Amino acid sequence: MLSITIDWHWTWWVVVVLVFDITVRVLAIIVIPRNRRPTAAMAWLLAIYFIPIIGILLFLLIGNPRLPRKRRKKQEQINQYIRDTSRGLDFGTLRPNAPEWFRSLVTLNRNLGALPIAGDNGATMIAGYQDSLDAMAEAIRGARSYVHVEFYILQADASTDNFFRALEEVAERGVVVRVLMDHWANRSKPFYKETLRRLDTMGAHWRLMLPVQPLKGKYQRPDLRNHRKLLVVDGAVAFMGSQNVTDSTYNLKKNIKRGLHWVDMMARIDGPVVASVNAVFLSDWYSETDEIVQGIELFDVSAGTGDLDCQVIPSGPGFEFQNNLKLFMGLLFAAQRKIIIVSPYFVPDEGLLLAIQTACQRGIHVELFVSEEGDQAMVYHAQRSYYEALLRSGVKIWMYKRPYILHSKSMSIDDEVAVVGSSNMDMRSFGLNLEMSLLVRGEEFVQQLRAVEDRYREDSRELTLEEWRQQPLRSTVLDNLARLTSALQ
Questions:
Q1: Phi, psi of 432 (to 5 degrees)
Q2: 487, HSE (Cβ side, Cα atoms, 13 Å)
Q3: Mean pLDDT (the chain, rounded)
Q4: Is the dihedral of CA 336, 415, 126, 202 positive or negative?
Q5: What one-character DSSP code corresponds to residue 94?
Q6: Phi, psi at residue 155, to the nearest 5°?
Q7: How far apart are CA 330 and CA 312, in angstroms?
């Protein structure tokens, strides 16, 4: 009798497990593919089917690639405000004879939430790591009214001491200093508490971006991050690009032990487009504080030191579409002679990979700069999984030599158009990070960028298809596994 009871209980649990398993699989097929790219949906389904418990937990934790509804509503309000207040305004004189594809691309960006294109701008590329920190410090010291600082990572260390001393000096004479820094990216980094104390001591108004603080009622998917890097001084000059405000080692013991140093670039810009950079900061400030900053005439602009046409394109999970991806795709299909891409984390989706391969097949000269060394294992191996397809298509791949991490992000098209900013060419930057890109039309700027690219080429070695074919089997396996997990969004 006891045996029968035990068997019945065992059979009952088997039935429960089977029903649960089938229910989960059916619901997964219904829920996961909706409004999701096929590759991402397939990756999630594979995870849930093969490792159901872990897969379900991961999906519940990071399965929603969008910001909370309240944050998205704020972004919609901001976008509408910018459209209404900037409609019909004269943002400088645009350069003549713009290609039809360029005008179309500007319209696309505008419809997706970008700021208006502006003429009469000056822009200077700064490729030295410490040089850019010191240039920003110099600009801060000239502030009369306010300084807006927004960086993914912000650390008060020996390398950034001049930057922070500049903030302290202007704050002491009454300049308003507003600071935004990403919460998750900074919370476990060295000098985090020291940085906050220094900001408090100088009297800066600071906030954490996208805080993950459930006990305070602040929570969203923890890997949705604000990855932007920008500085605005008095609405007259701005800096933006790929560099964080930290030492080139990020002060991490593992980086110092390996001798790793980051290589970045920043653009110093002046003219009407500075208002667009400032608008991005003010929108992020409003998102974090619910405060509409008063006393700033956002669109009271004046001509800069050059005649470049510039447009700022914000992107991220607060927008309905992947603005940066559409920008890159438009540029790839518009190129007629040359495409040069610099991206430390290059994990394209199917469309982007197809656009690059198509460019090669159209006879376009395509180069890709990446790092020989990887600082993030999963992304590093996922990126490597695309090398063979790129090499076979005719892409020239330049690997920036160890022990440096090439962290710059740019794309130059032919001889007249370029993009610089914070966005990598990977699925994280397309769908999960808040990013900002600067579209520039002007031969002078592209020549500056070409000079930086030439310097990178001198410090790189070319990866050939013959060399790649010698990769050991274990590397191929790791690369392919990482490629599958990269689609989990």
A1: -115, -25
A2: 20
A3: 88
A4: negative
A5: P
A6: -130, 135
A7: 15
Q: Nearest Cα to 206, choosing from 262, 167, 159?
A: 167
Give Cα separations from 326 to 114, 159, 337, 346, 420 (angstroms). Answer: 12, 36, 20, 16, 15
- Tell me the Ramachandran region of residue 25: left when phi exceeds 0, alpha when psi lies from -120 to 50, beta otherwise: alpha
197-251: per-residue pLDDT in tens?
Answer: 999 999 999 999 999 877 777 777 777 899 999 999 999 999 999 999 999 999 9
Instruction: Give dist(CA 242, CA 224) in Å, integer.
Output: 18
Report helix angle 129-141 to 161-172, nearest 10: 10
pLDDT-derived band at 321 (thresholds 50, 70, 90) equals: confident
Dist CA 18 CA 28 (whole Å): 15
Distance CA 319, CA 287 (A): 13
- The answer, yes or no, to whether residue 388 has pLDDT greater than 70, is yes
- Where b means 16+ CB within 10 Å and e means fewer, 353-366 reads bebbbebbeeebeb
Write down the pLDDT at residue 34: 62
Q: What is the dihedral of CA 400, 402, 407, 413, to 10 degrees?
A: 0
* Tokens of residue 43, six digits: 């990756």
d(C-alpha 105, C-alpha 327), whole Å: 7
Tokens of 390: 């790129």
Report which of 243, 245, 178 is spatially closest to residue 207, judged by C-alpha positions. 178
* 368 half-sphere exposure, CB direction, 13 A CA radius: 32
| This prediction's pTM | 0.88
User: Does the pLDDT at position 107 exceed 80?
Assistant: yes
- One-letter amino acid of 290: D
pLDDT over 90 at 47, yes or no: no
